[in-house]
Amino acid sequence: MSIQINAAFDSGNIRLVAIEGDRVDLEIVTDRQSDFFQWFYFRVAGAAAGRTLTFRILNAGQSAYPFGWPGYKVRASTDRLAWRMTGTSYADGVLEWRWTPDTALAWFAYFAPYTMEQHEALVARTALVPGMRHRELGQSLDGQAIDCFDIGSGPKQVWIYGRQHPGESMTEWWMEGALERLGDAADPVTRDLLAKATFHVVPNMNPDGTRRGHLRTNAAGVNLNREWHAPSAERSPEVLCVLAAMDATGVDVAMDIHGDEAIPANFIAGYEGIPSWTEARGERFYDYGRRLAAHTPDFQTEQGYVKAAAGTANLSMSTNQVAERFGALAMTLEMPFKDHDLNPDPEFGWGSERSKRLAHAMLETLADVIDGG
């Protein structure tokens, strides 16, 4: 039986170039109306047990972030539940790995996927949790719901949102962990937080990009995290409806959840460079990072992005816009596609369960600082 490659499913992305013997040549498809690409997710069928196949992604060197490939390892699964790292190399613009199957089917992905079907299941079970209040803030360009869960009764307004970049699937694993923790009424940390704050959680801001298998953009090829200064119904209704809801409640704390292609560590980026920046406001952000690093070995403060110089912050990005607009303690969490090298896992790397646990740690740390500022 011949080998078949298929990505015609929720969040799938790959194009078959050629199969020559045991070698499978592939290309990642660009986001619609965009040059961005890096996310891939596909199925392999028809390989004989014990037959070693070599997969090559030929256009990896032209991807959005080719500097992220060195040190990266493809995730492989035979049940779509456990996603293990597999030996991967990158040279001359080609990403390559080998696979010796012992099952009829195998799946490969850039990171453990979180499809729209998984999102709908998350929404359904979360809506049944006592105290969780579901609302649909608006709809995407493809007409999919922008779901939000409100929980708690405290005066502080905490907004947590993610998946602006759909290929950063670790984001929604983190969201699953956050929603599970916020829904645990028996947990003393949760009870304390919900008495002091009202949480608004948007687990997926880019359902169209998620379903289409995009890396970074929505159905119109728009990077949502460059729309926060002036979102529109034509280009970015996803941001438009979330920002309108934020305007209605105000924002005291904001967490924008992302993934980073190159840096093998978890870190947070802040709002240095906004017009209203002060050292006192900055200290609130730095204090949170120091506390989180002390709380969990899965976080660190040494590696991260270069800080913006005074007055140079890009206000089209959500963390900068929300910090400036509301005076909020705002942050962008970045999780790795690689592994958290300071605390590595040789089998799974940085994966779904660790992303969920980091959400717990961040909420626990928030409980220590929610009274301040």
From TrEMBL:
<keyword id="KW-0121">Carboxypeptidase</keyword>
<keyword id="KW-0645">Protease</keyword>
<dbReference type="Pfam" id="PF00246">
    <property type="entry name" value="Peptidase_M14"/>
</dbReference>
<protein>
    <submittedName>
        <fullName>M14-type cytosolic carboxypeptidase</fullName>
    </submittedName>
</protein>
<keyword id="KW-0378">Hydrolase</keyword>
<dbReference type="InterPro" id="IPR050821">
    <property type="entry name" value="Cytosolic_carboxypeptidase"/>
</dbReference>
<comment type="similarity">
    <text>Belongs to the peptidase M14 family.</text>
</comment>
<dbReference type="Pfam" id="PF18027">
    <property type="entry name" value="Pepdidase_M14_N"/>
</dbReference>
<dbReference type="InterPro" id="IPR040626">
    <property type="entry name" value="Pepdidase_M14_N"/>
</dbReference>
<feature type="domain" description="Peptidase M14">
    <location>
        <begin position="112"/>
        <end position="366"/>
    </location>
</feature>
<feature type="active site" description="Proton donor/acceptor">
    <location>
        <position position="334"/>
    </location>
</feature>
<dbReference type="InterPro" id="IPR000834">
    <property type="entry name" value="Peptidase_M14"/>
</dbReference>
<dbReference type="GO" id="GO:0004180">
    <property type="term" value="F:carboxypeptidase activity"/>
</dbReference>
